[in-house]
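WARN no homologs supplied; continuing
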Amino acid sequence: MTKVLIVDDEPQILRALRINLKARGYDVELAPDGATALRAAGSYLPDVVVLDLGLPDMDGVEVIRGLRGWSATPIIVLSGRTGSDDKVEALDAGADDYVTKPFGVDELLARIRAATRRHGAAPESRRFVRVGRFELDVADHQIRGGDIRLTPTEWQLLAALVRNPGKLVSQRQLLHDVWGPQYATETNYLRQYMAQLRRKLEADPAHPRQLLTEPGMGYRFVPAEELPA
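OK structure emitted
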């Protein structure tokens, strides 16, 4: 059964979507604000998120960025904001689709089906990963195995790599995902922050085993289970 997390501060929209989606066989979780949505995403692990941007405690774009810090779950924005700048900002932050209010339920259901079909071929999101002797909870920013701390930017960079286990992630993609599209050429940022991550997490930072550099191309995260014995 497909699990849908609906995030909106309008009770009537939450109620209407819950009724319509449940009637069509979906499992539905509701969140009236951004903080509740981020907590629910970590415990409920939805297959798709339907998200309003105008939330009472934070902007919906912040929720998108928070989710994208650890999850590749499809996000469909459902918003009354019709300006192109709002759409671009949400899509740049990591949303997969954008539907404006007022909306038709049949159209939204079609968007949900399309998003979950596309995601079905994508790698599963990772929340818990092991780097060196540390176990990291990428969603809650918790570390077990030692007394170290990562900065918010270090967490974002690590999460961007963890979402693509074993795969090369280009410098341009990492800069876009972590710092934004205006930083596409600032490769010195990546060198600095990758060095910091290795110093904190790798047993031998000068000879990393999991946080690897592909010279001139990008970086790669090697999961602990794929390392040679």
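DSSP finds eight helices and eleven strands in the chain.
OK
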